[in-house]
Each structure stands twice: as structure tokens, then as C-alpha cells.
Amino acid sequence: xxxxxxxxxxxxxxxxxxxxxxxxxxxxxxxxxxxxxxxxxxxxxxxxxxxxxxxxxxxxxxxxxxxxxxxxxxxxxxxxxxxxxxxxxxxxxxxxxxxxxxxxxxxxxx
Length: 110
What we know:
mainly beta, two-stranded antiparallel ribbon, two-stranded antiparallel sheet, 2 helices, 6 strands, globular
């Protein structure tokens, strides 16, 4: 499979919004061993850090530059508190799916 095919965007749907996730060969760093609880405003755009390098976790600060990774952009149609993934291993980005409970995450050095 070509590099371009591996980076084809996938569309993930949930909670009445769409987010785009890019598959790449870059290494994703575990930023935290637990999720981040965040109060999100209605219709405000957010960029969830997908690389784990941001100093402003769980949001992107541009530290992904040069990695081939990109933030996951999302917004909610209603203000609410959400649990955003901190380990960057979730299957439903940007939301926590409990992947941080895995031994490989808990054993990781941060």
C-alpha cells in the first residue's frame, strides 16, 4: 500500500458531529494515562492533539509540525462536558474509550 493511501482521511461520526482522522506512520506519544475532562462550548471549534506532543493537552499547540500528524478538529452542537483522550490510543478520537487502562499505556514513561 502506498504512503498516500495510508494517509487517506477516515470520517468518524459521533455525538452529532464529524471529525477527520488521518492515518500516518508517525509515532504517537502517550501524553497522559487518564482522560481530560473538558467543558466545551456550543459550536466552538476545537483541535484535539492527536500526536501527544502538545504542551497544552488535550488541545493542539502546533507541536505536531513535521510529524505528518494533524489535530482532530471537532465542535459540539450543544455545550457540555466531555472526556477527551489523553493517551492518544482511542478508537473514537477525540473521545476517551478506556484505552488508557491497557497495560501498554500504564507502563509507558511520560
